[in-house]
Amino acid sequence: MSKVTQISSASQLDGIKSGNTIVVIDFFATWCGPCKAIAPVFATVAEKLSETGKMAFVKVDTDKNSDIARAHNISAMPTFVVFKNNQETHRIVGADMPKLKAVVEELLAASGGNIIASSSSSSTWTGAEIPRGYKVVNSEIDVKGLDCMNWKDDFGSIRKLVDTAGPVNTLAGRSGKDKGKGKESGAEPDWMESDTDEQLMLFIPFSAVVKVFQVQITSLPPAPGEDDEDDEETPRRPRTIKLFTNNAHILGFEEAESKDAVQTVELKEEDWRDGTAVINTRFVKFQAVSTLTVFIVDAEGGGECVRVDRVRIIGETGEKRDAGKLEKVGEEQ
Fold this sequence. Notes:
Blueprint: E1 4-6, H1 10-19, E2 22-28, H2 33-49, E3 55-61, H3 66-71, E4 79-84, E5 87-93, H4 97-110, E6 135-136, E7 147-149, H5 158-161, E8 192-193, E9 200-218, E10 240-245, H6 253-258, E11 263-266, E12 272-273, E13 276-280, E14 289-296, E15 307-308, E16 310-320
Parallel strand pairs: 1-3, 2-3
Antiparallel strand pairs: 2-4, 4-5, 6-16, 7-9, 8-15, 9-13, 9-14, 9-16, 10-11, 10-14, 12-13
């Protein structure tokens, strides 16, 4: 039996909102190609996470329920609207399932629940503590605009870096024997490593203006073994990091080295706790951020390869972009 409830009236929807802590609404149309493409994924997430009284997943056909669509100011499809305690908390326009998952995970984490289950994710990874009054704003990242320079593109994923689910191989690949590449464990690595040298340039655009309070970076390289302690190919954790804001595109390495950073941080051994280092921003300079560039200048111990497993942005969400007129979002598949 499907865990997704088809809504037929405003009163039915109101009852579900009142009877559940978190409600995720999929506003769709039968003629919308992206809506059809994402429907099976939405159903799978609902199957895993639906729990009576706590979390409900519903679908609203905007053609059959135009009154409900108008009441929720739906202007494009698909649109996912998330309610917590009967108050709207998030709105995702377009068939962007990674972003929707990130939103759900944030809400579950904030309420003490478990993140979305995954056979490849660590169930024990939580990253660093989130300061009171702030939240993970990775759900506001425009994943289609993510960019990175000097990463080994034959493994790892830019999108995985900002995934709020735990790293795959949190423990696997930490011995010096396999260099942390997950080869011998048989698992596909989901982190990123630098390629020709130790530098990485990560460009993070947001779909809304955000205030950045912290940048949390998780790096889980293998512990050096006795026979490879000085192996330059063994990935290391980042050491010096420069942060830039509101650039229209990714910076080149020479440009970033000569340009004044909004903030520069040198991480030390004691900054890493359970594999995660916290960069507290000079908050007054990170009040209206539309893009964030993270430049990893070098690796600890003078290593020639740097590894990054996850990047979490902690802060507040500001003004959303105007969704525009009613339309399909994304390409038909």
